[in-house]
Amino acid sequence: MASTQDAWYISLLGLAEHFRTSNPPDIKSCIQCLQAVFNFKPPQRVEARTHLQLGNILLTHTKNIDLARTHLEQSWCLSQTINGFDDVKFEAASVLAELFEQQGQPTHSKPILRKAIELSQHSVYWHCRLIFQLAQIHATEREYEVASSLLGVGVDYAQISNAAYTRVLFLLSRVMLLLIDKKIQEVLPLLNQAGHLVETWAGSPHQKEYLKVFYFVLQVCHYLMAGQVKSVKPCLKQLQQSIQTIMAPTWPDDDAVCGGAGGAGESFVWLSRQQLYVLVYLVTVMHSAQAGYMDKAHKYTEKALAQIDKLTSSEEVVESAGSSAGGSGARGGAALAWRLRMALLEHAALCRLVAGGKAHALHEIARAAHLLSSAPNAHTAAAHTPQLHCLLGLYAMSMNCMDAAEAQFHTAIHMSQERDLWMFAKLNLAIVYLRGRRDNELAQLMEQVRPEALPAYAHGLRAASYYVLGLQAFFQARYNEAKRYLRETLKMANAEDLNRLTSCSLVLLGHIFLSINNSRESMNMVTPAMQLASKIPDVHVQLWASAILKDLYRLAGDTDRENEAYQMHCNFSQALLKDHFQATQMPQHALVQWTSGPPPALPPPPPGSLPS
């Protein structure tokens, strides 16, 4: 009788796999076959595996999440007591924990993963994978110290297990978390340690190149977080060279890279080749935006968005083909693509605002607001919403909607948990107060964002703070003090090629020298300001500089050049007025009134089109 029963459930399992791999897959029949297996009271191993298969298939191909969770829980419960049943046991724990996290119940995920980590110490692959997963959940919950500690455990375990490649992955992942948590003093020794391990790598050359990309991405982000645009250039160049190597047609696929001599314990990649390619585009856009190369930033943004479209379409094909592993890789890939797209749109909007394209900027902000509705989870949406409010504040400032700008910056400050964004919003709010002559509120605000109150690593923000202090002194006709602050900005901006801050400081110094009747010094400031603003391009600085040039040439009695500067000023002014009017006519302009809840319902902007 037992052999007949065995034949029945084995036949049912075979039939279920046939239906799953059919073209097109017959998922309903597959599920029915798997459910029928339980009628024959199969051995505990078969029962546990079948529950896992059902859970994965229900997750991937249906919306019956509750039933999927029940099967996964049964598989995890049954398999814990079976020796040597690692793949089923730990996959059930991993998929179940991921499901709870997706449902906004990470407190249910953590004990499952902790138990699985405890049981998996003999299995290098599963132990490392489960540590990575639990650290990711703690990081998502902003429990960075716990996540960092777990990754530290991973570093030590991988070293003991002779998994050298995975050890460096754990180390670099820990550096990444410390960067996110702004623990800059702790970052440098670990980053140097990782750099030494990568440089002296004696294993697979493919693994070395892959680790180099991860390492250089973190190096570049470390510099860019500080606003050190000049210092980052050698690292960025090396990163771009490494990604070209990895993207070459002769380069093996990710499975070949991570499945090397180290065995299963080395079977990890941080991101796929295609994802790394987009990420390198993104950090290049970030560098171009900070350095003040707006056209370059726009060009790379368009290329990166096209790559994301290719990436998501290929992942959709893979996911629709079906997978017994539950499709977690595809879901993770979609979430990453969403984050990359959002970051690119945010930078695109910022660059458009600098270049004087308010209608274009509003279009990009609206695309980002529309994208919020499809965020992978509530945490991700909450992390990006303050940045959108900050962008809307900058847009409202450029449109002279000062009340709306103030409301947007207050919203960003109230919602944000990121200190750098909080400081950036406050510096811009200070300019709103300056323009409104609200001296008392400005004085209170400036105490919080004075250069000495800002973190030592925040080079760019400190330089910007000196500029705002200079602007404040200029508005109050304290010209010597203003010059002192602006020279500090210039020194810091020139040291790191912060071109936009340099051009703004030069034109303001030119205005100050004009105000104290020093035409020669004014001309010495305004001329390079105009040249730099044209290179960026920054239409607002060009408008300001052309107005000063017009006055300088009038004072010098140079009528021809005065008329030339006047015509230039008129051209910039008319272009900005036309763009201003175009932006006010767009339905998306209503976003400046959005300060709570999800973004208001607006016509979704076409993904490729821009206002002319």
**Would you state the CATH class of the domain at 204-256 and 270-317 and 331-355?**
Mainly Alpha
CATH architecture of the domain at 204-256 and 270-317 and 331-355: Alpha Horseshoe
> Number of helical segments?
27
Could you tell me how far the N terminus lies from the C terminus, measured between alpha carbons in angstroms?
Answer: 78 Å
Shape: elongated
Strand content: under 5%
Derived structural class: mainly alpha
Enumerate the spans where pLDDT stays under 50 for 5 or more consecutive residues: 317-328
The main sheet comes to:
none
CATH topology of the domain at 204-256 and 270-317 and 331-355: Serine Threonine Protein Phosphatase 5, Tetratricopeptide repeat
Q: What is the succession of H and E elements? A: HHHHHHHHHHHHHHHHHHHHHHHHHHH
Structure summary, number of beta strands: 0
Any idea what the radius of gyration is? 29 Å
Helix content: over 70%
Average pLDDT, to the nearest integer? 88
Task: Label this structure with key terms.
single chain, 612 residues, mainly alpha, Serine Threonine Protein Phosphatase 5, Tetratricopeptide repeat, 27 helices, elongated
Task: Give a structural overview.
- The chain has 612 residues and is mostly helical.
- Among the domains are: 204-256 and 270-317 and 331-355, Alpha Horseshoe (Serine Threonine Protein Phosphatase 5, Tetratricopeptide repeat); 454-557, Alpha Horseshoe (Serine Threonine Protein Phosphatase 5, Tetratricopeptide repeat).
- The chain has helices spanning 2-21, 27-37, 44-61, 65-79, 86-102, 106-119, 124-140, 144-160, 164-180, 184-199, 205-225, 233-246, 254-258, 273-291, 294-320, 328-354, 358-372, 378-398, 402-415, 419-435, 439-449, 459-475, 479-495, 499-515, 519-535, 539-556, 559-584.
- Helix 4 packs antiparallel against helix 5 (86-102), helix 24 packs antiparallel against helix 25 (519-535) and helix 24 (499-515) runs parallel beside helix 26 (539-556).
- The radius of gyration is 29 Å and the shape is elongated.
- The model is unreliable at 317-328 (pLDDT under 50).
- It holds the Pfam family Cohesin_load.
